[in-house]
User: Which sequence fits this backbone?
């Protein structure tokens, strides 16, 4: 009876090895350690990683002196399982100690691989991204899989993607779902390390990411499917969508999810994360972003803490982009930050704190975090969020300063596609058009037009209602900058109408406000005030209290009445 065994082992563990007399032989210690291993594994199967970690720790404590020699297999299994739990629970210090023991006493490179995988994941969690990439590439090299020392030009990567698309066109969906299983252990292990690289290269070495994706897909086709193959096809869908084939990318992420039923669902959370990001380009975001909570639960069930937290941050940011009440968005962000800090996952925590500052800023609150500005990979996001705040509160000089910094460091080609890129391009475009109207510097008109064009490509590829209002607003602002007043006026109205029709209160607020500035320049003050007041009401409805009050003060200023305190 497992329940009785749980109780019995728990009672023994309370006594710990100190209670054992010298006369009690090593075989009894090994038996107790073996029981702890068994119960710990059963706890892991129930996703109770805290209890499992305790059982494994107790099992290790019962091992006799010289256990790596006398009980190698038992020692290896206990230390490996404990290291996995340490990663899930965010005990990175404990994980390092466990890993060092395995790497020191392992009898072969193959025996080191499971712990090398866990320690590589821990480097990503600790925001040590270059070290993570170096270690993963080192393991892959020892497995016979080398990466080019220099990154390929963009045209070469595009050609490689096209070649892979042609190969996959020779398979039906059923062919891929029924494709052979991978039998090579070394190739299957390589796939797991490639999956780590998929995530970290987005931040630290984006030119490398498409090579990782293509290699993973090609492995799956040439050598067979593994539980990691759905991840490969999900990222391939993202890559294809990034190149402009959004509908085709959408098809591949759906294929990736279907593959989970054929090869196993241990990577379901990561597949849901990638797939949901692409689905948001095709389906209304108000409903789609909530799928990230499914991804969070699926990842937590398998101990995939990294992708659990990835889904959690995407859920929080998605609620912001969907125009959900900002108080709810704030609570989503706070919960995600707490969990990330608890698990010592700094990479995503630093990024979320940057976004959280924008959310609280328009609410009239501040965020103070020791995690801000600790990552060299978040500077672009930091500049962008400062642009958002300064554009929102009409701080022109500050906006121009951060926009210059943003465009100066936005030269690295990104091959990933997240729904937040929609917000990035709309902020970059709207900010650029305003700066052009104020400065008359043509470079800002050019930058705005490029942002509008990228946004337009995504909108026209899927005709998603979620993207419609901002697209018309970008069009209107560009025409306003070019002094095509009549055409601009029509597009401002379309932006407002689309946001109102599809219930994007955030987009309606900004569209009404920018229409007000446009109308004000034509000396129609009363008409402009009407739009400003509509924007004020919508910002307030959204929960952007500070922005709502700032806009009300602006209306009182142009109307000749005293501002509010």
Assistant:
């Amino acid at each position: 009876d497992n329940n009785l065994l749980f109780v019995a082992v728990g009672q023994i563990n309370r006594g710990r090895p100190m209670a054992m007399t010298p006369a009690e032989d090593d075989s009894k210690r090994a038996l107790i350690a073996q029981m702890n291993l068994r119960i710990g594994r059963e706890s892991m199967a129930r996703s109770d990683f805290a209890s499992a970690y305790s059982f494994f720790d107790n099992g290790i404590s019962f091992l006799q002196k010289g256990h790596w020699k006398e009980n190698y297999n038992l020692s290896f299994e206990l230390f490996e399982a404990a290291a996995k739990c340490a990663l899930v629970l965010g005990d990175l210090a404990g994980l390092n100690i466990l890993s060092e023991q395995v790497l020191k006493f392992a009898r072969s490179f193959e025996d080191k691989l499971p712990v090398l995988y866990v320690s590589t994941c821990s480097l990503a969690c600790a925001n040590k991204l270059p070290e993570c990439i170096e270690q993963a590439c080192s393991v892959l090299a020892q497995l016979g899989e080398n990466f080019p020392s220099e990154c390929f030009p963009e045209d070469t990567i595009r050609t490689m993607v096209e070649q892979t698309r042609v190969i996959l066109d020779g398979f039906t969906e059923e062919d891929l779902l029924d494709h052979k299983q991978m039998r090579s252990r070394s190739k299957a292990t390589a796939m797991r390390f490639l999956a780590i690289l998929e995530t970290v290269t987005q931040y630290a070495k984006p030119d490398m990411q498409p090579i990782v994706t293509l290699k993973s897909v090609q492995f799956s086709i040439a050598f067979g499917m593994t539980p990691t193959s759905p991840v490969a096809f999900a990222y391939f869908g993202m890559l294809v969508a990034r190149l402009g084939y959004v509908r085709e990318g959408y098809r591949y992420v759906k294929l990736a999810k279907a593959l989970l039923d054929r090869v196993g669902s241990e990577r379901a959370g990561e597949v849901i994360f990638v797939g949901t990001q692409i689905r948001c380009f095709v389906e209304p975001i108000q409903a789609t972003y909530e799928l990230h909570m499914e991804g969070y639960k699926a990842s937590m069930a398998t101990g995939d803490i990294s992708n659990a937290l990835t889904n959690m941050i995407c859920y929080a940011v998605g609620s912001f982009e969907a125009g959900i009440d900002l108080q709810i968005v704030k609570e989503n962000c706070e919960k995600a930050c707490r969990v990330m800090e608890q698990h010592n996952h700094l990479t995503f925590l630093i990024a979320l704190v940057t976004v959280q500052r924008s959310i609280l800023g328009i609410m009239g609150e501040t965020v103070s975090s020791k995690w801000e500005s600790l990552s060299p990979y978040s500077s672009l996001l930091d500049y962008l969020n400062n642009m958002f705040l300064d554009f929102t509160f009409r701080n022109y000089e500050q906006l121009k300063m951060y926009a210059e910094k943003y465009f100066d460091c936005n030269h690295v080609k990104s091959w990933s596609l997240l729904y937040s890129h929609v917000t990035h391009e709309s902020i970059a475009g709207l900010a650029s058009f305003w700066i052009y109207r104020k400065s008359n510097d043509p470079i800002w008109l050019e930058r705005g037009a490029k942002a509008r064009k990228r946004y337009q490509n995504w909108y026209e590829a899927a005709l998603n209602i979620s993207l419609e209002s901002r697209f018309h607003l970008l069009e209107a602002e560009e025409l306003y900058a070019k002094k095509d007043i009549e055409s601009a006026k029509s597009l401002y109205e379309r932006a407002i109408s689309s946001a109102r029709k599809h219930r994007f209160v955030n987009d309606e607020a900004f569209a009404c406000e920018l229409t007000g500035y446009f109308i004000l320049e034509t000396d129609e003050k009363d008409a402009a005030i009407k739009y400003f007041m509509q924007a004020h009401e919508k910002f307030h409805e959204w929960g952007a209290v500070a922005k709502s009050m700032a806009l009300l003060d602006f209306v009182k200023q142009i109307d000749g009445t005293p501002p509010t305190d």
Observations:
- The chain has a mean pLDDT of 91.
